[in-house]
Amino acid sequence: MGPFNRYRFACLVALCGLLLFERPILSQGNMIVEMEPATVRHLAGIVTDPTGAAISQATVEDCDSTFGTIMAVGKTDRKGRFSLPQAKPGTHHYLQVISRGFNLTRIPVIIDRSGKNELRIRLTLGT
């Protein structure tokens, strides 16, 4: 295989990889990253738009600290509510929230019995 054919093959493999593993993140505008962890009793809450209206069908991913591995996935209901019940007190979680038309949002979360009852996540409009 000549150098030109290797280049064409590498481009084809890269393109197939993008198409096969494309995630909604690729079509989002900016990324919003919360630096301060939220402390809540349960890994549950509500996702809203900038006006406070509920966002239904948003994807909520519980990831590792690098956001490279997804541990659990949930969707918001028509009232914008989600719940990922596997979280145990004293654990750290890294949520990634994705919804069409909004910026990707990442939030570190600590599960603690003294925390808030639920998480409130306000997404910003995509650019």
Task: Describe the structure in your own words.
By secondary structure, the chain is α/β, with parallel strands linked by helices. The chain has one helix and nine strands; from the N terminus they run αβββββββββ. It has one helix at residues 3-20; strands at residues 31-33, 38-40, 44-48, 59-63, 70-75, 81-83, 92-98, 104-111, 119-122.
Please give the count of helices: 1
How many beta-strand segments?
9
**Rounded average pLDDT:** 81
Q: Low-confidence runs (pLDDT<50, min 5 residues)?
A: 11-28
Q: How far apart lie the N and C ends?
A: 43 Å
Q: What structural class do helix, strand and pairing data support?
A: alpha/beta
**Secondary-structure element string:** HEEEEEEEEE
Radius of gyration from the alpha-carbon trace, in angstroms: 18 Å
Helical coverage, percent range: 10-25%
Q: How is the biggest beta sheet arranged?
A: 6 strands, mixed
